[in-house]
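Q: What does the assembled structure look like for these inputs?
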Amino acid sequence: MIKTITGNKDFIESLRGKRASFLLCMSNTKTANIEGITQAGIPGMLHLTPTLDAEFIAIGEVRSLGSIAETPKGVPTPALLTRAVHLLHPFREIEMLELGLEISPKLEHFKLHSFGIAPSDSISDGANIPAEEVFEKGIQFAQNLTIQSDYIILGESVPAGTTTALATALALGYDAQDKFSSSFKNAPSGIKQSVVDQALSRIGENDDLFSILSKVGDNMLIFNAGLILGLQNRDIRIVLAGGTQMACALLVVNRILQMMEGELDTSRIALCTTKWVAEDTQSDIKALLEMNDFALNAYYADFDFSLTDHPALKLYDEGEAKEGVGAGGALMYGLLNGLSKEAITRKVESFLG
Amino acid sequence: MIKTITGNKDFIESLRGKRASFLLCMSNTKTANIEGITQAGIPGMLHLTPTLDAEFIAIGEVRSLGSIAETPKGVPTPALLTRAVHLLHPFREIEMLELGLEISPKLEHFKLHSFGIAPSDSISDGANIPAEEVFEKGIQFAQNLTIQSDYIILGESVPAGTTTALATALALGYDAQDKFSSSFKNAPSGIKQSVVDQALSRIGENDDLFSILSKVGDNMLIFNAGLILGLQNRDIRIVLAGGTQMACALLVVNRILQMMEGELDTSRIALCTTKWVAEDTQSDIKALLEMNDFALNAYYADFDFSLTDHPALKLYDEGEAKEGVGAGGALMYGLLNGLSKEAITRKVESFLG
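A:
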């Protein structure tokens, strides 16, 4: 039920039966305000998506808006999958990392880590991120992190995040064109490409790694690059729960290590995504992972919506939405702890009425 | 669903809902190379059985050979039962104890405890075990052991282990003839008895307890005797997950205690085996347990393959295979945690295709 993308089964099998803490990185980039760039949320309210996702996975309702984030086509947020697993086999704890939000989630009794990071600007105008500072905050967070469980599942909710990830990978010199997934079945490559081209046109010969990141990245990518490196001396295992955006955070790590002539110990890190990303013909997460100098165990949860008749969920199997809010890692957690595809499907359906 | 062999239900009921760590003792004795002595594995490859069993319970595939250990009659290893339970209700962790193997399991990310113990020789030639040293290593391991869970389930995979156990019990003066089970439905008593007779003929009047063990025992029996005694001052509960071989480890403990004029506190120890052993008419685990000076809670998991039509599994109900790789203890763990006989059966079937 867990399939291998790169590496072997051992890492993920060693997590079978273990408890995980779920950490959600929430961030806004104004890139999401560009019309048609993403369907990760409600048009005009896209900035609310991470806020609503956080509320929904934590307490099962949304407080900052009437209803849960849905795409214009009516594809419900992958937060439903994460929440379904949490109801059936709960995470040991859920914590939120606020990496630049317009609106904070309205939650009590849940740990919300704040870093004083502002939402980033659109990469078409220059993201304007204090990249070194955000990176440092990621390192610091990892170095001081304490968890009550056996490992971390790190998810993200960043509308337009695949656009900023594509721009980042290209700006860092990776052959990444056509390798990033999209929340759309038919990715709006015209709009997306034009935004990425605008972003890349702002990069000059004198830009170093961090000045490139400050122009075309997003806070999640940069913070998580720091987090991954900051965990190097900690005895904490982490599953990066995401698709091509998490793969991009690793590409950033790779460039930083090349600059520092450092190496990455990947014995406590893996990536886990959804089947919809792993089998997506319009992107190539495996290729992105293999661009790194280091080898990494990467997996996907062999879950789809073949057991439902619900039309909104069937859209996932047709290629809409695909991943986000740690859905792939959450599904992996459920499957590793004995949940059946059927049980997860029924629970997700129950949210939709 | 858990039935009592000796003692009462209280010990096992107190473990209901608790999490267990599964520890697998793996050992080779060259006794297994005697033709027709065991069907715990593939002829000519019997030494690989513990290695393959370990790989299969940990990661669900075998790496050291193309396919999973099967007896000549096509009875699949009881590791299938242990793995099935682990998938449906995972152990908190799986760790391996390498007590003399020709080939180590090929696993990453799983704790493999190594003790520098060599495979033992055939008891027909003298097992040639440094018995006191192996015993001491068992004590030491128990004294330093840390687990992340509420109790230990200790399984074993030792091809030809019932032959060495029978020889050991007889050599130690127990009235154990016809009380040890076999992986065969119709135990090859001719061959087995002749090997046991050869082993016993090597015991002289001057042999003390440990020199007897060094001639006719196997590493698992001796190490686990140490382990059981080493746990006496630890607040760790343990379920010996096995049949007559685990009963023999207790008979060894009993003789050691008689020699030392010591007593065993059995309040944190139980034995749990399968129905196939408990109801076996050709052996008598209850009688073996009652030969000890101490009383012990012993149980069996009331599971059989009555719900399947799979011919390879039906052989278990006809008396082949019976126990091993902690199957009885694993089934007990599943049943204590709400798994149904049906769910376990379906999962085991899924491995066979």
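Chain B has a mean pLDDT of 95.
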